[in-house]
Amino acid sequence: xxxxxxxxxxxxxxxxxxxxxxxxxxxxLFFLLRLSGDPAAVLAGEEADAExxxxxxxxxxxxxxxxxxxxxxxxxxxxxDFGNSLTAQTDALALxxxxxxSTLLLALLALVITAAxxxxxGAWLGFRPAARSRKWTNALVFILQGIPGYIVGLLLIQLFVxxxxxxxSIGNQGxxxxxxxxxxxxxxxxxxxxxxxxxxxxxTMAEDYIRTARATGASDAAxxxxxxxxxxxxxxxxxxxxxxxxxxxxxxxxxxxxxxxGFGALLISSVERLxxxxxxxxxxxxxxxxxxxxAVTDIAFSVIDPRLRxxxxxx
Amino acid sequence: xxxxxxxxxxxxxHAGFKKPAMADAxxxxxxxxxxILVVLTLVFGLNxxxxxNTGSLMTRFKPPALDGYLLGTDQLGxxxxxxxxxxxxxxxGVAMVATSISLIVGTAIGxxxxxxxxxxxxxxxxxxxxxxxxxxxxxxxxxxxLLGRGFWxxxxxxxxxxxxxxxxxxxxxxxxxxxxxxxxxxDLAGVAWPKIMVFxxxxxxxxxxxxxxxxTFADMLIAESALSFxxxxxxxxxxxxxxxxxxxxxxxxVAPWMMLAPAAAIIFSVVALNLIGDGISAISRRNSGRAx
Amino acid sequence: MTxxxxxxxxxxxxxxxxxxxxxxxxxxxxxxxxxxxxCLVGESGSGKSMTALSVMGLLPPGVEVISGSIRLNGQELLxxxxxxxxxxxxxxxxxxxxxxxxxxxxVRTIGAQLSETIRRHQGSSKEQALAIAEAVLASxxxxxxxxxxxxxxxxxxxxxxxxxxxxxxxxxxxxxIIADEPTTALDTTIQAQILDLLRDRLAEAGGLMITHxxxxxxxxxxxISVIYHGRIIxxxxxxxxxxxxxxxxxxxxxxAVPDFGHKGRPLVPIPGQPPPPAxxxxxxxxxxxxxxxxxACAEMPALSAAGKSRKVACHHALHRGTAG
Lengths: 315, 292, 324
Prior knowledge:
A: 315 residues, mainly alpha, disordered C terminus, C: Rossmann fold, globular
């Protein structure tokens, strides 16, 4: 198995998953919309009269047989036609894409902060798990883990915006307003990542090759940096896929709390207003995003891990 | 057992030397905290505090410990302690149901996937992987918006959005348990697979299931409060930790303590559950180290 | 005459929750002279690996030296600081471990792992280190050594990996080489090759070989020390001990080796199991398994001279003719 075929396999698998994901989610949405009553009435809004509802029903083809509607629906999705937003009268997909950038910015910052905190902290905790200093830190981390991410956000606002008045908490107003939202988003991931890095490091430290390295005179620093961390981090990187999903979930709340103009906030407001086309477009984009991230992680992994990279040649 | 090699014995001794106290203490502390919660929930569930809904403009925005209001009052003069207490049955109830659904469905599917082979298993695994990769909150938010608010929609949605997580864990564990000698023996003796799964594999999964229950419960609590915070959970007038927090946002400047009560309740519950989950998993690790 | 390695009255204990530590090694005495190979023979749990680890200062957490002295060329090793240990490990003493499959870092190339120790102890540049690494691998019989430097451990077979482990131990020309069951994890066909390599290297400097296999000891050792339950119970030149064992345990070990030459001869194991580490030792540890046990064995026998360069710790030391 060469590196190229490994990449192709990964792409193929993730592509298939994307397909399944899109079909199943859109089918889910399709039926949910019809379950919750007359879709035309939902789309028309609460104040519309019977005539408007009938018009909408005709326009969107809600009178047609279910199967026809479903096929039409799928065809539209394939051609990336989600229609216009019900509230903003602009193309739904365009609306979502416009806001994608802000969310990705926040996500990127959050990932950087997460790595900056969890890698050193996790490595330190895992290096000598039985030492006394670790015990107290472990206890502290444990308690902090119990604080859900969005509460951290609220606390941060309480402290820095209300009490200290150092920062603002509304929207995207340049770099100074990036700190709190990205810290909040990071706090969704940090507890788990610290545990994982610490556990991986501890596990790696117990391996035989660490003892071999020590027997050749390696110092603690060398052991950690050259031998333990690379192996420990390898395990942690595999989780980036699931963590990304968590990040997306977290950004929904974070963007609402900080009035951040990202597409998480858009999703929430569209859901509240039952702006169906936008919801559909947003879910579609998330699905694609998630699949892309997973595919990239798979490929990166197969490149980084030497055991996967080289074919097994027993000599 | 006195006939073990010295190296192995001290390794186990060392690993168990300071830790038993730790793991047991954690578990006990967590269970005590959880017991407090359960008792309070039952008390408040059966006897909702009146102060949760009554309030007047005269008593609004009182800081904690003033005038006998333990945690202060909110913008409508209602006691925050009362509201948080009233929110308890809801929060814990939804979390309990959602966790149960998630675990039951997840375990069933995980076991089925472990029993099958070839295509059916691959399909199940792909479904699991696909759903796990997708943000569960997005699913929950979208479904609830269309299905409406309320206890059962919320609990069902959360449970069904998260079953793949437990399914994956159960599948992995079951695969390794199936390799054990007594399972192979049962198979050779002609015991049917469903029976093997229920009577041999399931009991061996107990520690894993217990740990998962604790952690999933915590996640469900947080998810429910997040959804209520976003206005998508509990019906709007009823108290729920999430929407108390949401209300507190508007009055942040005037009454910063409003956030305290619900946040404390959530953190307390989550820490309790984490203690239980970690305690169980540490103890089961210790026990499985001793066996054999 | 100062030996290369002198272990004197070394006691190593395991922390226990009953107060007194459990003894893993009980007043061990060992001497290795330059150019000499000593085999420490014992079963699992006898403390043989602990002895090796003590010399390297690599005792696991929870296990500590209680008393005694370990001297390398007269220099006391116990109580050295971390910095001092770093020069000795891999430099003055090299150690070969048992399992080559798990003993090498899977994400670093062979060349990188070798250069790390070469550069640390010999201060070479990158290129020099690689050249030295290539040379040492070639000397251990690794074909295409230059190319092998850039491969990862999982690309090599067990025998080759063990050669890399040996290379790691000897590349800086240490005065003392310790080998802890270096062939146990290998196929029998490879074992002989590795043993040959080891014999030459160990003899160049001075070697301590840990093993449970008498055949290995017979092949390679100048002298044998038999360890049981943390105590040395017999010691002497290899041929002498094997031909004429004085301690019933040693005799039992020799008898237990299957005789492939004679079909139908029943296997003769030593009955019972070795006892776990204990805090107090008053009676002879082997008493419960020994067919010569008597009331005298309620007192722990001391290691005493029993003929030319022989020592044995037994109240019923055997003489030629009484064994078997």
